[in-house]
């Protein structure tokens, strides 16, 4: 069995790492380069950098921050936010990103998924899906949102996950908006539903409050990795102790 991954996420706004609850009420967590260096030294398997307001504000991602993080860190590094064209993807790869994460552009222009996969490979092509539970036509669905969680699309998350795999995505980051920042645990129901619907890795995101939540995400939720922010940013737990707890539960980890 492949080792499960722990991936710290740096949500960046105006050049600073921030963390909110349900995508709002942002709280400053520090300098992205310094935080990235600390996470690498603590044993993070990968890093995700998201410019969380670039798409909503209609601007390009902050390439200078991406370059500085890439220069300081040698672990795999995924970047997302503000990607609209294949030229944006190219600039991010040239700046040092090993993978790019596409969300808003993937919904508005699905061909960008295929184009990215053809030019840079499926392993470089990550699609971030931000679902929220809503009632539509008398039933509850997981509605995919874009523009940093501001805009509902009417797309159902599991069906959209299958579609992005068909288009060429090599990985899905699933950020459950209802759980994001709450520290009450990942939404295991949707995580498992998406993981069982596709054949590519699924990264659980949104809601980690303690190491046990990560263990649940990769066992009960069947995720391949867990994305984490708050509990590491603010020092509640370390990556090392989290990995050890998961290993003690029989979960394969890179220690």
Textual characterization of the structure:
This protein is an alpha/beta fold and 255 residues long. It contains 11 helices and 12 strands. It has helices at residues 32-42, 54-57, 63-72, 86-95, 104-108, 111-120, 157-167, 188-197, 211-219, 230-233, 239-248; strands at 5-13, 16-21, 24-30, 47-51, 77-80, 99-102, 125-136, 139-146, 151-156, 171-175, 202-205, 225-228. The chain has an 8-stranded parallel beta barrel with strand order 1-4-5-6-7-10-11-12, surrounded by 6 helices. Helix 7 runs parallel beside helix 8 (188-197) and helix 9 crosses helix 11 (239-248). The longest helix has 11 residues, at 32-42. The chain is globular. The protein starts with a strand and ends in a 7-residue tail after the last helix. 51% of the residues are buried. Residues 20-25 have low confidence and may be disordered.
Question: What is this entry, summarized?
Answer:
It contains eleven helices and twelve strands.
Write the layout of secondary structure elements.
Layout: E1 5-13, E2 16-21, E3 24-30, H1 32-42, E4 47-51, H2 54-57, H3 63-72, E5 77-80, H4 86-95, E6 99-102, H5 104-108, H6 111-120, E7 125-136, E8 139-146, E9 151-156, H7 157-167, E10 171-175, H8 188-197, E11 202-205, H9 211-219, E12 225-228, H10 230-233, H11 239-248
Parallel strand pairs: 1-4, 1-12, 4-5, 5-6, 6-7, 7-10, 10-11, 11-12
Antiparallel strand pairs: 1-2, 2-3, 7-8, 8-9
Helix pairs in contact: 1-3, 7-8, 9-11
């Amino acid at each position: 069995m492949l080792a499960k991954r722990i991936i710290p996420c740096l949500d960046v706004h105006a050049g600073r790492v921030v963390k909110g609850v349900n995508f709002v009420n942002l709280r400053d967590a520090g300098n992205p380069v310094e935080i990235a260096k600390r996470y690498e030294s603590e044993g993070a398997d990968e890093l995700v950098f998201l410019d969380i307001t670039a798409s909503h504000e209609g601007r390009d991602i902050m390439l200078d921050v991406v370059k500085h993080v890439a220069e300081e860190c040698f672990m795999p590094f995924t970047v997302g936010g503000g990607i609209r064209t294949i030229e944006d993807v190219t600039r991010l790869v040239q700046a040092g990103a090993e993978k790019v994460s596409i969300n808003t552009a993937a919904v508005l222009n699905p061909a960008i998924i295929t184009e990215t996969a053809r030019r840079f490979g499926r392993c470089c092509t990550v699609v971030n899906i931000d679902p929220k539970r809503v009632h539509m036509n008398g039933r509850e669905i997981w509605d995919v949102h874009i523009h940093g969680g501001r805009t509902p699309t009417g797309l159902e998350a599991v069906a959209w996950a299958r579609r992005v795999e068909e288009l060429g995505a090599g990985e899905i980051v699933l950020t459950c908006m209802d759980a994001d920042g709450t520290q009450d645990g990942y939404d295991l129901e949707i995580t498992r539903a998406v993981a069982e619907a596709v054949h590519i890795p699924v990264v659980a995101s949104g809601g980690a409050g303690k190491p046990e939540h990560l263990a649940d995400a990769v066992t009960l939720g069947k995720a391949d990795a867990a994305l984490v922010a708050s509990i590491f940013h603010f020092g509640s737990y370390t990556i090392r102790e989290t990995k050890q707890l998961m290993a003690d539960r029989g979960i394969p980890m890179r220690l």
